[in-house]
Design brief:
Layout (H helix, E strand, L loop, with lengths): L2 H5 L5 H23 L1 E7 L4 E4 L2 E13 L2 E12 L2 E5 L2 E5 L4 E5 L1 E4 L3 E9 L6 E9 L1 H31 L3 H15 L4 H10 L4
Helix pairs in contact: 2-3, 4-5
């Protein structure tokens, strides 16, 4: 959709919003797939690794007992260029039944969706650290909200039009048709002119 389309008075607001939202959605999905990053590495406490332009610093682990599970919280720093993010992903060790679940830590800003999760590696001192950077996720969510809004506005317009048509016995529609046919009707035969006046249609 172009700026000209947005200024076009023939389009209703529901159409403008939906078309713009769809454009944003497609562009955001393409950019997300092109610029997404994912790093997976096995590390133990105190280690620091450099992968491409990303520095992963595994600071420490803390333990906390909560109700029916034990929480193991890792502190991990992610550095990219001049940007630094601190994550606190969590492992939960449940007693009944004995299971281990991973709880991701998510950092969101205007342009990026940053996620870090750790997984337990059996019989080792290492944890698997998986870091994902997903750009333009907020724009994808925004476009989804806009599409929903456009659909609601379109439904409202349709219901309003149908209600007006029912309450006015179709006179609104007939009047709209007559407005555009009055000039030509004067040049038609009396029989066709009568049809237009009575039915509000071009036959």
């Amino acid at each position: 959709i172009s700026i000209i389309d947005l200024k076009n008075k023939k389009f209703k607001w529901s159409q403008k919003i939906s078309h713009l939202a769809f454009s944003i959605l497609i562009i955001s999905i393409i950019l997300n797939s092109v610029f997404s990053e994912e790093i997976s590495v096995n590390m133990k406490v105190g280690e620091e690794k450099i992968i491409s332009n990303t520095i992963i610093d595994f600071k420490k682990i803390s333990k906390e007992n909560v109700d029916n599970y034990t929480s193991i919280i890792a502190e991990i720093d992610i550095k990219q260029n001049d940007n630094k993010l601190k994550f606190y992903p969590e492992l939960r060790l449940y007693k009944t039944p004995e299971t281990i679940t991973s709880e991701a830590d998510i950092k969101i800003n205007l342009f990026n969706f940053n996620l870090l999760v750790v997984n337990y590696l059996k019989e080792t001192d290492y944890l698997n650290i998986r870091y994902q950077k997903k750009p333009f996720m907020l724009f994808i969510w925004l476009s989804a909200v806009m599409l929903g809004l456009g659909g609601i506005l379109g439904l409202r317009d349709m219901l309003k039009w149908n209600l007006d048509y029912i309450l006015l016995g179709g006179s609104t529609v007939e009047g709209h048709c007559l407005e555009h046919t009055d000039t030509l009707a004067s040049q038609l035969s009396s029989e066709l002119k009568k049809k237009i006046v009575n039915f509000g249609i071009w036959d």
